[in-house]
Write a structure and sequence with these properties.
Elements lengths: L2 E5 L3 H13 L3 E5 L2 H10 L4 E5 L7 H11 L4 E6 L6 H8 L3 E4 L4 H10 L5 E5 L3 H13 L3 E5 L2 H5 L8 E4 L10 H9 L4 E6 L12 E4 L4 H13 L3
Helix pairs in contact: 2-3, 3-4
Protein name: Response regulator
InterPro entries: Bact_response_regulator, CheY-like_superfamily, Sig_transdc_resp-reg_receiver
Organism: Corallococcus praedator
Length: 233
């Protein structure tokens, strides 16, 4: 059973979605504004936030940003009839599990909610766009949320997020080998580091994380991430 917070200024839509979730055995709370969502998260712990994008006052992207300050481990799904929203890119930078259209594809949503993990955010640093997209997709399929950077400067611009792990390529544009790793360690002290590289000789001498050599076994990497996530606390 999951505990979900549904945010949409269209109360009828939100209540219909909540009823479907409750029929599946979950608990769903409906609010109609970002301000009400903040009050709800301060009062109770939720597993997943489901928010509309375009609302009066606080947008869905702003809701994700503000609620993560209260509860950094909250997973988030944005539901929108306006996939071209400029703020969606900012929202993705905050780490969202998925962006779904309206009307909501319920089988997809139910599957996402069944797998969604609290405190499941992973930082991806990789300059190969195909590999980056593949990693983001396989992580999402296991319920993990990700934020990504493809260069050293992009690492510095990552949002105010609280990851539990990072997958970092040693050699990305914008700095010497290992600079992106140094930036990740500095920005997010204490998280578990996986260095994914074809150049293990470039590892810094004080590296105390996990080495994953390219090409790598995706299933093995996911299993290792799941062990780290499950073993925390």
């Amino acid at each position: 059973m999951g505990r979900f917070l549904v945010v949409d200024d269209n109360r009828a839509f939100a209540e219909n979605l909540a009823e479907i979730l409750e029929d599946a055995g979950h608990v769903a709370t409906v609010v109609v504004s970002g301000e009400e969502a903040l009050a709800a998260v301060r009062a109770r712990r939720y597993d997943v936030l489901l928010t509309d994008m375009r609302m009066p006052g606080m947008s869905g992207a702003a809701v994700v940003h503000q609620l993560r300050r209260v509860d950094p481990g909250l997973a988030a799904i944005i539901i929108t009839a306006h996939p071209g929203e400029a703020e969606l890119e900012w929202a993705r930078g905050q780490g969202v599990l998925a962006v779904l259209p309206k009307p909501v594809p319920m089988p997809t949503l139910v599957e996402l909610l069944a797998r969604a993990r609290r405190d499941g955010l992973v930082v991806l640093v990789e300059d190969d766009p195909h590999l980056l997209d593949n990693l983001a997709e396989v992580l999402r399929a296991r319920g993990f949320t990700s934020v990504s950077a493809s260069s050293v400067p992009e690492v510095a611009r990552l949002g105010d997020v609280s990851p539990f792990a990072a997958l970092v390529d040693l050699r990305v544009p914008g700095g010497p080998d290992g600079e992106a790793l140094r930036c990740v360690r500095e920005r997010f002290p204490g998280l578990t580091l996986f260095v994914v590289t074809a150049h293990p000789d470039a590892l810094p001498g004080d590296f105390d994380g996990r080495l994953v050599r390219k090409p790598f076994d995706t299933g093995g990497l996911l299993a290792a991430l799941e062990r780290v996530h499950g073993g925390r606390g």
